[in-house]
Specification:
12% helix; 3 helices; 13-stranded antiparallel beta sheet
């Protein structure tokens, strides 16, 4: 089976958008903040009677496009072939040249100076109304409504089996940004490419149980992500 067989504003100040986007999928960030990271903790001394909370270096209040693409890894498609799983797309998702394409439908991102708070990138990137399907015989699993959480380098989503909900907001994919390429800009868009998308420790046993196998391993590389957003 080849991948060709698969069925198918944000607003921010100039100069700030690039910084926010770069931090968005950078090297995996701390999963949670500690009590010492709360407002008014370490930082430059204040001349006033109290210290103020750290100010974000960027705040993107509304993400409204464009897309997150995943260039499918050959190892992933080969694994699907061996498992006799037929992939497909759900809703508004598409397949273009071997890449799954999911429209960005909303979300927000706030970025702080590294070291001031942890995690220093918080927010979410939503992909409502689209997803990925995997079918074997009479069993069809749909992974939909992906929500990227940059603060923990995770992707959450809903899972259904033969049309019935199996899980909501489940931890489906782990992100690894160590292979991230430098930010590119084209016209009114910014492009970040290179982050690895891997099967999570939660999704692997769920898929194995559903398809009666033990071949899906946590950390299996699904593909390389490319995020494209509007800068105007």
């Amino acid at each position: 089976m080849r991948t060709t067989q698969m069925s198918r504003k944000f607003t921010a100040k100039r100069g700030v958008a690039a910084l926010a986007l770069t931090a968005l999928v950078a090297t995996p960030l701390a999963a949670c903040s500690s009590d010492s990271d709360s407002a008014g903790s370490s930082g430059s001394p204040s001349n006033g009677s109290s210290q103020s909370a750290p100010e974000p270096v960027a705040a993107i209040e509304a993400l409204t496009g464009r897309t997150t693409e995943i260039a499918l890894d050959e190892g992933f498609t080969d694994a699907l072939t061996q498992l006799k799983l037929t992939p497909g797309v759900v809703g508004d998702a598409k397949l273009n040249g071997g890449s799954l394409v999911f429209p960005i439908t909303g979300g927000n991102v706030t970025v702080f100076k590294p070291g001031e708070v942890s995690p220093y990138v918080i927010g979410q990137i939503q992909h409502e109304g689209s997803g990925l399907s995997l079918t074997a015989g009479k069993t069809k699993v749909e992974l939909t409504n992906f929500n990227v959480d940059p603060g923990v380098s995770r992707v959450y989503g809903d899972v259904s089996v033969n049309g019935k909900t199996a899980a909501t907001s489940a931890f489906l994919f782990q992100l690894d940004g160590r292979s991230l390429e430098p930010l590119k800009t084209e016209g009114g868009t910014a492009i970040l490419q290179g982050t690895k998308v891997e099967i999570s420790e939660v999704a692997a046993p769920l898929l194995n149980d559903t398809f009666k196998t033990d071949a899906v391993k946590p950390g299996l590389l699904v593909g390389i992500a490319k995020i494209t957003v509007n800068t105007k």
